[in-house]
Amino acid sequence: MRYLTDRKRAQGMGSGRQGTHHHWQMIVTSTLLVVLVPLFVITFGLGLGGTYEEVLAYFGRPIPALITGLSLTVGIIHLLSEVQAAIEDYVHGVAGKLTYIAAAAFAYTLIAAALYALVKLAL
Amino acid sequence: MADVNRGNRPLSPHLQIYRPQMTSMSSIMVRMTGIALFLLAFFVVWWLLAASTSEAAFVPIDWLMRSFIGDLVLFGGTWALWYHMLGRLRHVIWDFGYCLDLETAIKLGQLMFILATALALLTIVIV
Fold first, then answer.
1. Which of A5, A71, B20, B35 could crosslink A40 through cysteines, CB 3.0-4.6 Å?
2. Smallest CA–CA separation between B28 and chain A, in Å?
3. Confidence (pTM)
């Protein structure tokens, strides 16, 4: 028998070397999505389909802008974890590390672009 | 002492060995919808960024999103979004220690496909 705590045994393990952090993060964002997905689907669905002026006016309002910004931020971070788990499973070595970093770059760029667009639409 | 085989051994999901089952297929679909949505988010953000830039930037991407192919992709994306949400909710339920028996897991898998389709169709009706 080894005198190790459960935490010590899990720390730094897993293919992402992050112990249980990734798993716990997935539980958190997955739960948030249950609230955000219905809000986003309705909000974005109503926003899409108008003229240019209607779209500007719609996303200039606080509630659609906040729901869109929040959903895209949390959603893209969640999907990044999802994609990175897939990369850990199927792409290995340097290629795996580079793909992992590229996925993060893609995700964070999308979030920044989305928030920038929403701020510009609101002002 | 026997050599420990560290490099050349089968890796985790033995897709080519297992027969497709509701439990595995519904789980694989969660990952596939996740990856698809990650890529689809690009078009949503492009559309928003174009709207915030100018009418000239907005018109082509808005046309693409509302074209027949755009509608088809967006409907698929909506289904994927609902499915992924339900699939991840199932994982949360499992992680909290509920519904872990095989029979319930299979029923939940079937329910995910049915509910995602119903919610996607409902989305078309509402918006």
1. A71
2. 11
3. 0.87
